[in-house]
Design a protein that fits this description.
mainly alpha, two-stranded antiparallel sheet, single chain, about 325 residues
Length: about 325
């Protein structure tokens, strides 16, 4: 059994019902919108975010979920999908998970409007059911994700990212959404309990580890047997590169910054940067940091009684850093 299927096993029934409810939550009177949302629903990914919502809810409540849990999972997936649709427009990307992106098929104008529609559907799902506590969790996540993206753009122009700023960027950009999933799960079944904050922290730690793992993929062999260097081409300052910069001589530092700023499209130069980062121990350092976030997350889980839901969450934490793509 694949790891993802194993993780999903204790919440299989909930995930099946969730898919129906999620599809319903997208419906519109506009035929074009329904055609596009149908396309989105049929090209879904692993659905990690709703899985976090249900597993956390069941772990903290002793195996129970309610309508709020389903709404929380739907809201997070609506908003996550909205951000992906908008991201593809921002990045001018024609592909998403191997399929054509919305902007590639229906152009930017429609993609932006569809993203706005999904966002408003998510917010209204909470408002119509007076889930104001869940709405607050979601709204904070959306604000932080936007701030994180803009902070990264601002810093990429000057390439002056410290390790602290890097953590702040990935906390806002990536970790905040996983943190929202976990706190939503807890809040849906145990509102105003201390578990809500514990689970938010747990999700944040996993999100940090997840993003560092993503950064490491740029320096490890891709499907063609060569490191990809995509982050370097896009002038993204990731942890392996930041560490290598901080531990380089003045000349090497100058060469590195020059390479990322001016020669980031030069394949040979990008491979030289990758080799330099490996040699300076950048990958090893990033891996150590990733593992420390993972251990901290597992420590938070140890406060809860043993259950199949806790086992699945532990499996999820380990999967995040052991995955191959």
């Amino acid at each position: 059994m694949k790891v993802v299927e194993q993780i999903k096993e204790p919440i299989r029934a909930e995930m099946e019902l969730f898919e129906k409810k999620f599809h319903e939550s997208m419906s519109s009177k506009v035929a074009l919108l329904n055609r596009i949302t149908y396309y989105i629903v049929n090209r879904k990914g692993k659905q990690m975010r709703p899985m976090f919502v249900f597993l956390v809810a069941k772990m903290v409540s002793g195996g129970k979920v309610n309508e709020r849990t389903y709404r929380g999972a739907s809201v997070i997936e609506l908003i996550h999908t909205a951000t992906l649709v908008h991201d593809d427009v921002v990045d001018d990307s024609n592909r998403r998970r191997g399929f054509f992106s919305i902007n590639a098929l229906w152009k930017n104008k429609i993609a932006v409007l569809v993203g706005d529609y999904l966002l408003s559907k998510g917010l209204l799902l909470s408002i119509d059911n007076e889930d104001f506590d869940l709405l607050k969790i979601i709204s904070v996540a959306v604000r932080e994700m936007s701030e994180g993206e803009l902070l990264q753009i601002e810093k990429a122009r000057r390439l002056d990212i410290t390790e602290e700023v890097y953590y702040e960027i990935i906390r806002q950009k990536t970790a905040t959404l996983i943190a929202a999933c976990c706190s939503l799960g807890a809040c849906s079944v145990k509102p105003q309990s201390e578990e809500v904050e514990q689970m938010r922290k747990f999700g944040e730690l996993i999100g940090m580890a997840f993003q560092i793992k993503d950064d490491l993929f740029d320096y490890t062999d891709g499907p063609i047997g060569k490191p990809t260097g995509i982050d370097i081409k896009e002038q993204k300052m990731t942890l392996p590169l930041i560490y290598s910069l901080n531990n380089a001589t003045k000349e090497d530092k100058k060469w590195l910054i020059n390479s990322v700023k001016k020669y980031n499209k030069d394949k040979k130069r990008v491979q030289e940067v990758i080799a330099f980062v490996k040699e300076k121990g950048g990958l090893q350092y990033a891996e150590e940091k990733m593992i420390s976030f993972q251990k901290e997350a597992l420590l938070l889980l140890s406060n809860f009684p043993d259950s199949v839901y806790k086992d699945s969450l532990e499996l999820m934490v380990n999967y995040v850093i052991e995955r191959k793509k």
